Each structure stands twice: as C-alpha cells, then as structure tokens.
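Good day; I would like, with your permission, to put a structural problem before you. What I wish to show you is a protein chain and, alongside it, a tokenised description of its three-dimensional fold. Please examine both parts with care and let me know of anything in them that strikes you as inconsistent. Thank you for your consideration; the sequence and its tokens are set out here:

***
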Amino acid sequence: MSDKRDVIIKVNNLSMSYGEHEIFKNVNVSIPRGAVLAIIGPNGCGKTTFLKVLLGLIEPIGGEVIVCGNKPKEVRNKVAYVPQKFTFDQTMPITVFEFLKLSLTDFTQSEYEEAMDHFKIAHINNTIIGKLSGGQLQRVLLARAFLQKPEILYLDEPEAGIDIGGERDFYDMIAHLNNKHNMTIIFVSHEVDIVSDKATHVLCLNKKHVCFGAPRNVLNQKTINKLYQTEVDFFNHKH
C-alpha cells in the first residue's frame, strides 16, 4: 500500500520518559489511512507506552500526535482499543450478549449477527464471560471493538495467550476488518514473522525510531540485529 494515501496518524518528534528514565525520543512517523501497522522491539523499549500516547491515555514530554486531524483525546469516538490484559470480576454473572449490550448501545441486530458470525462466537453468546478461555475472550473484545465502528483499532500484543491455530484465525479476523471495513489497525507484537506476513507497515522501536516502512523493505537481518542489539535469527516466511 502506498504512503501517498491520506495520513490518519501523524507523529512529530515524539519523546517520552518517566522521571529520569527515558522511554523513547524523537519518533517521527506518518501512518496512512487503511494501514496495518505493527510496532515491534525488545521488552521495555516503549511499545505499549507509544500505543498509549497515540490513544491519548498518557501525555508525552515532547512532540505531538495528530489523529484524524485532532489531538488523540478529541477523537476517542473514532478509535477502539483491545488491551493486552482485560481485567474484570470473573464472578460477575454476565453473559457475552449482556456484556456487549452494556458496553455498547449503538448497533443494529444485523451488525451484532455479523460480529457473532465473523468472530465465531455465536455459540458462546449466552456464556458467562468469566468462563471464557483467553482466546474466546479476545474474540469477544474484538467483536466489541468492531461494533464501535472505529476508524482506528489499537491492539496491545493481541496474540498473547492464544495458541498457534487461534493466532492464525485471529490475524485473519484482523485482515477482514482492514480489508472489508477499511479500519486502520495498529498493533504491538513480539512476533517478527507475523509482522512480516500480516502488516503493511512496521515501526521498530528501541528507545528511538530504528525503522519505519513496509516490512519487505525494512525488516532484514541488519535491522533486526540493530533493533534487538544482539544476533537474532530472522526468518521471513509465509503461513
């Protein structure tokens, strides 16, 4: 996909630190509308922090983020977020349907049925959410995000806690949201091979902007070694 399309997220000289601990500095990227962007890097490099800055959940110490032409806090009605860990009272007697209905009100029956069908959760519609497996809960959270009708979907390490087969299905669902509904997808990942296969763009972070672009153009052995500051084998393969 070409970077000449409309820019939906613009990041200018973004820097973040906690006290004297620098997380990253001077990150500059322009993310085109309809992209599937993966954010990768070693543990502690600032991937989740960067995502939270894009969401407007935390303020950077320097630089700016423009989302859909505005500050992140001003466009929260245009974005959806699936966190790495979703914490809730697992003893709460609420079904999947009740959870989605309480979380959201502005969706039609046909949209709900599409979500149930696409995310393959119709059979757990009346299941208590505290009884769901990790993979099932991820699908429910994705359905909730879909029903919000966002322009941008943010995902923090969405493959965590999902087996290999479920992981493949999960990314197929993400591709559907991108291709059919033109959602811009931003996700954090540790899986370099998934990134090379599933993302249209990749941002490599390790306390600074290491690389940005199409995976086939920027992900190579030299970049991976620089990103992780060690010798890491890089295999570019297709599923």
